[in-house]
Amino acid sequence: MDKHFYSGFALQNEAHFFKPFRNSSPYSVSGFSYGAINAFEHVLASTKRIDVLQLFSPAFFQEKPEKYKRLQRMGYKKSALSYIEKFSENCFLPHQKAPLEQGDHTPEDLDRLLDYVWDIEKLQNLSARGTKIEVYLGAQDHINDVEAAYAFFKPLSTVTLIQGANHFLQTGEDNVSN
Fold first, then answer.
1. Going by DSSP bridges, is the β-strand pair 132-138/11-12 parallel, antiparallel, or unpaired?
2. What CATH number is attached to the domain comprising 114?
3. Is the CB of residue 171 less than 8 Å from the CB of residue 139?
4. What digits encode the pLDDT tens for the residues 114-151?
5. How many CB atoms sit inside 10 A of residue 19's CB?
6. 178 belongs to a structural domain
7. Is the model's pLDDT at 177 over the cut of 60?
8. Residue-wise DSSP of 119-168
């Protein structure tokens, strides 16, 4: 387990997908999707030195309608296993799905993922503390509202928009494996 990396919803050991972007400093913390929320909250609460926070495809659903969120919850409740499989497939669109290792998940995790609201003041406070915030977004992400996430994070962080990349920041030319 990588103590400086926070995994996405229902995942574990997926840090290898982000190796080309990850800062290897012991003063760097990163997270993917739902894990970006957890990484952000960890850094906010930490009193330790953290120079860089890297958010890979941070889960950004605060502008999604309630109907969308309700449908996600219903799908998970009907069959968590089927929901996770379909969700994983959508994370890789428009490219081929790569093998993933499933992690623990609960309905409460899904609620937190869907209902989390990124707070501009918290981002400002973190930046004022001297932590550099880096956000990486895939332009072909089928999970997040990339335009809204880009507009939200751009004023307070370095945002890298990767053309042709999906939620896992893969462009189809990537052959990332464990």
1. unpaired
2. 3.40.50.1820
3. no
4. 999 999 999 999 999 999 999 999 999 999 999 999 99
5. 9
6. no
7. no
8. -HHHHHHHHHTT-EEEEEEETT-SSS-HHHHHHHHGGGSEEEEETT--TT
The answer to whether position 174 is within a domain reads no
Instruction: Write out the H or E segment, with its range, that includes residue 45.
Output: helix 34-45
Residues 132 and 97: their CA atoms lie apart, in Å, by: 32
- pTM listed for this prediction: 0.94
Q: How far apart are CA 10 and CA 100, in angstroms?
A: 10
- How many folded domains does the chain comprise? 1
Domain that holds residue 41: 5-162
Q: Any alpha helices (H) in 60-117, and if so which ranges? A: 66-78, 80-92, 107-115
Q: Is residue 70 part of a domain?
A: yes
Q: Is 101 helix (H, G, I), strand (E, B) or coil?
A: strand
User: What CA–CA distance (Å, rounded) separates 64 from 67?
Assistant: 8
Indicate whether 176 belongs to any domain.
no
